[in-house]
């Protein structure tokens, strides 16, 4: 962590974070309103998260991350930009989603550039695969969505197959990949991938 990240982590952690508990969240109590609730899994340094939440003030955003420098950076962005519709959980995303989100409670999941675990022996560690995709489907409200992006083509193919095989989820751009959503800002990670001529693959699935 840089000094600035550590300082913001220590200063703003209690203000903008929610402790992990094996207890279902009530988004209306957390945010003080009944606006739609979007969960971002693995927000990295959080710049895109902050920009999306700032632009869409009528939605609530819950970010789940374990990378302390990224949490510190996002907390600073929340404070600097005076964003009132973001909260953070510092915990393993799979467990947090399973234990803290109620069924049919969430309006959308953002999963931007998750670790592709490119080596075949590590594929079992990939986030987007069954049964976790079934968990995501269960947590979504009807009409809710899963929006994933990756700069690793093979992982995109993998995720397309896994999500397509998940009961209750329907590919909004069937049978292939989604068009870039205009409201999603590019991240520095994404720009680096583009400079390496990597193909960005996007997936957008809705709950039936």
Characteristic key phrases:
about 210 residues; alpha/beta; Rossmann fold; seven-stranded mixed sheet; 8 helices; globular
A few lines on this structure:
By secondary structure, the protein is α/β, with parallel strands linked by helices. It has a single domain (3-11, 36-207), classed as Vaccinia Virus protein VP39 (Rossmann fold). The chain is built from 8 helices and 7 strands; from the N terminus they run ααβαβαβαβαβαβαβ.
Q: Can you tell me about this structure?
A:
With 208 residues, this protein is an alpha/beta fold. The chain has a single domain (3-11, 36-207), classed as Vaccinia Virus protein VP39 (Rossmann fold). The chain contains eight helices and seven strands. It has a seven-stranded mixed sheet, sandwiched between helices. Strand 2 (59-65), helix 4 (68-81) and strand 3 form a beta-alpha-beta unit. The mean pLDDT is 95.
Number of strands: 7
Low-confidence stretches: none
Order of helices and strands: HHEHEHEHEHEHEHE
Major beta sheet, strand line-up = 3-2-1-4-5-7-6
Tell me what the CATH architecture is.
Answer: 3-Layer(aba) Sandwich
Question: What is the helix content?
Answer: 25-40%
């Amino acid at each position: 962590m840089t000094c600035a990240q550590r300082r913001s982590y220590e200063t703003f952690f209690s203000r903008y974070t929610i402790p992990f508990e094996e207890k279902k969240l009530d988004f209306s109590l957390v945010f003080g309103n009944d606006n739609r609730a979007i969960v971002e899994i693995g927000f990295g340094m959080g710049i895109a998260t902050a920009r999306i939440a700032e632009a869409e003030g009528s939605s609530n955003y819950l970010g789940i991350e374990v990378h302390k420098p990224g949490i510190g950076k996002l907390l600073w962005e929340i404070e600097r930009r005076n964003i009132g519709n973001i909260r953070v959980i510092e915990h393993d995303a799979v467990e947090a989603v399973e234990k803290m989100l109620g069924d049919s409670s969430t309006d959308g999941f953002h999963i931007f550039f998750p670790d592709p675990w490119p080596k075949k022996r590590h594929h079992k560690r990939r986030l987007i695969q069954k049964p976790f995709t079934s968990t995501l489907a269960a947590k979504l409200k009807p009409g809710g969505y899963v929006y994933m992006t990756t700069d690793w083509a093979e992982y995109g193919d993998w995720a397309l197959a896994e999500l397509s095989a998940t009961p209750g989820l329907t590919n909004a751009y069937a049978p292939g990949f989604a068009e870039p959503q205009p409201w999603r800002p590019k991240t520095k990670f994404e720009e680096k991938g583009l400079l390496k001529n990597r193909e960005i693959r996007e997936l957008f699935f809705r709950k039936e």
